[in-house]
Amino acid sequence: MKLTNFLLLGAVLCAEGNDDPRMKILPAGDQEVRVGKNIVLTCRAVVPSLELIRDLRWYSPQGYPVQQGDSLSDYSTRIYSEEQPGEAATALFIKQVSNEDAGQYTCKAVYASNQHLQATVQISLFVGITWEDAPIAQYARLGQNYKIIIFIQVRARPPANIDWLKESLILSTGDQYVIESDGLVIQSVSKENAGTYTCRARVPETGELEERDIQLDVRSWKLDEITGTLTGYQLRRQDEGSYTCIAENNAGREQASAYLSVIIRPKVQELYNKTFEVGRMGAELICKASGEPLPRIIWRKWSLNEPYLAGGQPDDPRIIVRDQTVLAPARSIPNATISWWYNDVEIGRDDLDRNFQIIGHGPRSDLIITPLVSSYYRVYKCKAENPYGLAFHDIELEEAHEPTELQQAMLDKNTATSLQFRFVPPSDMGGLPIDSYAVEYKRARQDWGSARRRVWPVDTEGNGYILENLSPQTVYDLRFGSKNRVGFSPWGAGIQITTNQQGHPEPPLLSIQTGPGEVLKGDVIFLPQSKV
Questions:
Q1: Distance between CA 476 and CA 469 in Å, rounded?
Q2: What is the 3-state secondary structure of 152-203?
Q3: 130-219: what fold?
Q4: pLDDT at 70 over 80
């Protein structure tokens, strides 16, 4: 038995001793890396006596030794190597891989003073699916065609397949949607087109998959923050009412209100052809029309130039024009009785829930809801009825809350006295569009109790958000938030920035107003000095 054990052990030692000394790189094989990722490669000596390994180093594709160990001045170096304690191995670190890092890397060592060992690995790079220009919050105007812009950069071969989804339903080119290479076109935008759209990019050959959610808000109003002009598109009767303009800065707040009256073009709602026998008494033609303000109805025979007068006609007493019947969408003659419903249940009759309060039943009626639980958020139906018929209008009550923290604040410009930012909106906007962004800022040694605040309306023109009146070469702590109609988000996206030192001003740009809505921008123009 002892002899058998001895022979087995000897066989194992003999098998290991016959292996030629070599270098081994892990992970094995050539490496294909996505641009911007990090990678580590470990080179290990496979030899009987590790203590006989010397000069173990990594070499770049250009043949230069990669910095290693104590030769590093600091660990912010992007490409470096580290010896692995307790083993004859060294690790190659490449952080944020870029195109110039591609090539063949070599690991070399000397074994037993005279055997030169080496192993190589080829690193190739590819650009994966990246979102170049795909804002996660986009805005469309009611009634117009809108293209959801989304530019993606993908690996050239094989190309990515692009799918579009809305609320998890796959979209295809049809009557309203047109799928293009750089976006999704929505034709004749309606309120129903608002919601979350998902762009899905996938490469079947590599299994790579990326998704981008885009929140589309359909607006019937546009605010020009420079001129303060509020423009409405496709106004409806519901848009009539009082509007308030608020001006706010660090010195205070002022506001003024104006009333918007919506004028609706006249429309003939009813005028039917009639046939009467000769000699019939009391034959009537009835014209019904609507509009705001109420239109005046005029009768004229096609063969005559002059209209008929109210009452009897001087030259033909048989023809009498009586008072006109006028119908308006928000009014009726006689007045309508209004009731409130949901799911075919009448509130106040079939449902006596005290969390519903109805004020008035016509010609105006208000439904006040105290939504204690989520089931109150639903579609409610306003029903108007008079002897001439019924009319319905659906109103959806949706739940909303404050937005979550801002995802990111990006510094675009730093001067001695100002900072310019862009923001990545919150991942959850609370069910309502963001209407403003805010910053709290203070000097680094101050506490937040002494911080100042700046609030900006949402920038729809891409001009960014500018914080001014800062001190040069000063360290500031900043934190950011956003607001919807419910309230402010928590403060977040905190950063610390040092303003630049004072210096020469940047060259100004010349803007020339060439016509309505047209501005040309260019470089500085030196004008000749006037002669004294």
A1: 12
A2: EECCCCCCCEEEEEECCEECCCCCCEEEECCEEEECCCCHHHCEEEEEEEEE
A3: Immunoglobulin-like (2.60.40)
A4: no
Nearest C-alpha neighbor of 437 from the set 394, 401, 389, 403: 403
State how far the Cα of 117 lies from the Cα of 90, in Å rounded to an integer.
Answer: 14
Q: Between these two residues, 174 and 324, which has the higher pLDDT value?
A: 174
Structure token pair of residue 264: 């609706």
CATH topology for 408-498 is Immunoglobulin-like (2.60.40)
Distance (Å, whole) CA 327 – CA 313:
26
Instruction: Give tens-digit pLDDT for 239-270.
Output: 778 888 988 888 888 889 888 888 888 888 78
Query: In 47-102, where do the E strands start and end?
Result: 53-59, 79-83, 89-94
| Backbone dihedral angles phi then psi of residue 67, each to the nearest 5 degrees | -55, 140
**């173990």: which residue's tokens?**
56
Q: Is 476 helix (H, G, I), strand (E, B) or coil?
A: strand
d(CA 403, CA 431): 8
| Vertex 442: Cα angle to 441 and 444 (nearest 5) | 125
Fold identical between 130-219 and 408-498? yes
CB contact set of 310 (below 8 Å; sequence gap of 6+): 321
Domain ranges of the chain: 17-126, 130-219, 221-260, 267-273+283-324, 337-396, 408-498
Contact 82/75 with Cβ under 8 angstroms? no
Q: Which helix (H) or strand (E) holds 475?
A: strand 475-483
Categorise residue 238: left if φ over 0, alpha if ψ from -120 to 50, beta otherwise: alpha
Burial of residue 376 (number of CB atoms within 10 Å: 0-12, 13-18, 19+): middle
Q: Read off the pLDDT of each residue in 465-479 and give the average, rounded to a whole number.
A: 93
